[in-house]
Amino acid sequence: MNELSCFLAELLGTAILILLGNGVVANVKLERSGMQNGNSVHITVGWGLAVMLPAFIFGATSGAHFNPVLTLALAAVGLYKVFPWPTP
Fold first, then answer.
1. Distance CA 13, CA 27 (A)
2. How far is CA 2 from CA 41, 43, 81, in A?
3. Cα angle, residue 19 at apex, residues 13 and 24 outer, rounded to 5°
4. Rounded to two decimals, what is the model's pTM?
5. Contact 8, 1 (CB under 8 A)
6. Among candidates 24, 43, 46, which has minimal Cα distance to 33?
C-alpha cells in the first residue's frame, strides 16, 4: 500500500468514527430527536458500531489506527511500517 491510500483510509475512517459516534450521542441527548429518551446503552452500542464499521472497511488498508496519536506513536518508535520514520 502506498502512503497516500493509507493516509486517506485513516482520514476517512476517523471521520466516519466521529460522525457516527457523535451523531448517536446527539440523537439521544438533543430534544425533539427520534431517540430523545434513550439511555447509555444506546450510546454504547452506537459507539461500538461506529468503531466497528470503519475498522471493517479500512482495516486491511491501514491497520485501522483511527486514533492519530496511536499512529504517530507507532511511527515514532518504528513499529508502524506504513509511515516509516527514521529511528535514532
1. 21
2. 39, 35, 11
3. 130
4. 0.72
5. no
6. 24
Question: Residue 72: helix, strand or coil by DSSP?
Answer: helix
Q: How far apart are the first and last CA of the chain?
A: 25
CA–CA separation, 38 vs 72, rounded Å? Answer: 36
85 has pLDDT over 70: no
- Are 82 and 10 in contact by the 8 Å Cβ rule? The answer is no
User: What is each CA distance from 9 to 17, 51, 73, 82, in whole angstroms?
Assistant: 12, 14, 18, 12
